[in-house]
């Protein structure tokens, strides 16, 4: 960084300015333009007139916070969480639920138009579910703060992600955990290893809620006893993580069982139950996962004779329910442990029409046996980077239908352009799914047909 730019970013005047919010950014901040320069304003909504304070300057944009609302949006609501604005876990609690969905649908539409140069023939109605206490998986940061004389547990601060927000509860985290964040802070404050625990990961199954304590030094017997007592008192399974992900192991009870069920939605088919480990990837919103599964089945329209390829399959969240209805389904995933557990879940559920392969789908796999086979239908559920590497060699001409589940509208839009312009599909339908209420995160689903 040049000396001039360093000075530019460090010089933060405290003067207050007045502006009109003309847009919302991808992360839920209000957007204003002052002297032709974009200003991203935390806590402001579209159409509001605000008095703001610049808190950080950059060469091409500035960051600001609201000092005073001069006019209020009719869609502004009182945030339910008293930590909103300080904690960076949510960015849209001050916007009513209907408007949150509209914002996300607009983001998806804009990405399709701008990046993919496509538009769906049909906009699907948005999928929504319970907006509070929905988050069954996540990571809480832990920081021992000498100046405060105690430990903080929570998400990162909205204004400064280097710091842990000082919170006592969370309204969007699973109700077994959200109200007890302050108790977790008290627990760690009294431990010998209070300065050596950087994070706690949580994962909730249908019957068991697990806490994974990462610790940078061996725990004393006193600390282990304190963790076991906490787990017993509050009904948590306690895991320890002294090193890498592979080091995670249960402290109490000896053999906890994490699992969740996916209803079939059809009396002709049995439900599926998936067992998982606490650091495995699962969809964070259990209710939305069930609604998403129902929509995916509707769009896939699986037939008894179909052969289906499920890419980025993880634990088999889509693979196994699909396998109940088709002749064959193959799930492909890059993480070996997830593939092992997917196969175990298939056997546990008595599913014989599914098999699983390990493959890095960000590398060329066109010579793999599964990549050279004809498939009637593809299901794609990639991470944020999308599936463009796969779309260099798939789908084959035999594939008539693709369902694409996306956690990033930009990569979905790019891949939609590839499917339409290179492979001859049409974007038949698309819509958003509110997997992360009160955040700007956009989850969506799209159907492509020949």
UniProtKB/TrEMBL annotation:
Domain (TRAM) ranges: 9-68
Keyword list, A-Z: 4Fe-4S, Iron, Iron-sulfur, Metal-binding, Methyltransferase, rRNA processing, S-adenosyl-L-methionine, Transferase
Matches recorded under SUPFAM superfamilies: Nucleic acid-binding proteins, S-adenosyl-L-methionine-dependent methyltransferases
Example GO BP: rRNA base methylation
Residues of the active site: 407, 407 (nucleophile)
A Pfam family hit: TRAM
InterPro entries: 23S_rRNA_MeTrfase_RlmD, MeTrfase_TrmA_AS, MeTrfase_TrmA_CS, NA-bd_OB-fold, SAM-dependent_MTases_sf, TRAM_dom, U5_MeTrfase_fam
Binding positions for [4Fe-4S] cluster per the UniProt entry: 81, 87, 90, 170
Gene3D superfamilies in the cross-refs: 2.40.50.1070, Nucleic acid-binding proteins, Vaccinia Virus protein VP39
GO-annotated molecular function: 4 iron, 4 sulfur cluster binding; iron ion binding; RNA binding; rRNA (uridine-C5-)-methyltransferase activity
Domain of life: Bacteria
Chemical reaction(s) catalysed: uridine(1939) in 23S rRNA + S-adenosyl-L-methionine = 5-methyluridine(1939) in 23S rRNA + S-adenosyl-L-homocysteine + H(+)
EC numbers on record: 2.1.1.190
Binding site for S-adenosyl-L-methionine: 283, 312, 317, 333, 360, 381
Family: Belongs to the class I-like SAM-binding methyltransferase superfamily. RNA M5U methyltransferase family. RlmD subfamily.
Entry function: Catalyzes the formation of 5-methyl-uridine at position 1939 (m5U1939) in 23S rRNA.
Family matches, as HAMAP family: 23SrRNA_methyltr_RlmD
Protein name per UniProt: 23S rRNA (uracil(1939)-C(5))-methyltransferase RlmD
Source species: Dyella jiangningensis
Phylogenetic classification of the source organism: Bacteria, Pseudomonadati, Pseudomonadota, Gammaproteobacteria, Lysobacterales
């Amino acid at each position: 960084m040049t000396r001039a730019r360093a000075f530019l970013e460090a010089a933060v005047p405290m003067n207050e300015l007045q502006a009109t919010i003309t847009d919302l950014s991808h992360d839920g901040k209000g957007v204003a333009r002052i002297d032709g320069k974009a200003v991203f304003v935390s806590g402001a909504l579209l159409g509001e007139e605000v008095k703001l304070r610049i808190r950080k300057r950059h060469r091409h944009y500035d960051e600001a916070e609201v000092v005073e609302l001069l006019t209020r949006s009719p869609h502004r609501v009182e945030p339910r969480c008293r930590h909103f604005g300080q904690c960076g876990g949510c960015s849209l609690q001050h916007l009513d639920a209907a408007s949150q969905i509209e914002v996300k649908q607009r983001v998806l539409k804009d990405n399709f138009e701008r990046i993919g140069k496509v538009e769906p023939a049909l906009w699907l109605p948005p999928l929504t579910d319970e907006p509070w206490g929905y988050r069954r998986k996540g990571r809480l940061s832990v920081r021992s703060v000498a100046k405060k004389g105690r430990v903080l547990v929570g998400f990162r601060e909205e204004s400064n992600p280097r710091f842990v927000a000082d919170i006592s509860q969370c309204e969007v985290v699973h109700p077994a955990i959200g109200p007890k964040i302050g108790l977790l802070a008290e627990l760690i404050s009294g431990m010998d290893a209070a300065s050596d625990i950087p994070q706690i990961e949580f994962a909730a199954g249908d019957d068991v809620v697990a806490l994974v304590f990462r610790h940078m030094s061996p725990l004393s017997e006193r600390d282990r006893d304190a963790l076991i007592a906490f787990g017993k008192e509050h009904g948590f399974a306690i895991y320890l993580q002294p090193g890498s992900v592979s080091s995670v192991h249960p402290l109490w009870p000896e053999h906890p069982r994490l699992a969740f069920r996916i209803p079939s939605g059809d009396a002709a088919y049995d439900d599926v139950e998936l067992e998982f480990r606490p650091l495995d990837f699962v969809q964070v919103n259990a209710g939305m996962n069930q609604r998403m599964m129902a929509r995916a089945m509707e769009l896939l329209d699986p037939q008894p004779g179909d052969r289906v390829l499920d890419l980025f399959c993880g634990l088999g969240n889509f693979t196994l329910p699909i396998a109940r209805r088709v002749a064959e389904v193959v799930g492909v995933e890059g993480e070996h442990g997830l593939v092992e557990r997917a196969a175990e879940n298939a056997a546990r559920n008595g599913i014989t029409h599914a098999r699983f392969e390990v493959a890095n789908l960000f590398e060329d796999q066109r010579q793999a046996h599964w990549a050279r086979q004809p498939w009637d239908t593809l299901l794609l559920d990639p991470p944020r980077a999308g599936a463009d590497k796969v779309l260099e060699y798939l789908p084959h001409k035999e594939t008539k239908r693709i369902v694409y589940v996306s956690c990033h509208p930009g990569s979905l839009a790019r891949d939609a352009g590839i499917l339409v312009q290179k492979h001859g599909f049409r974007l038949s339908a698309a819509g958003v799914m509110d997997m992360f209420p009160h955040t700007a995160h956009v989850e969506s689903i799209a159907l492509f047909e020949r």
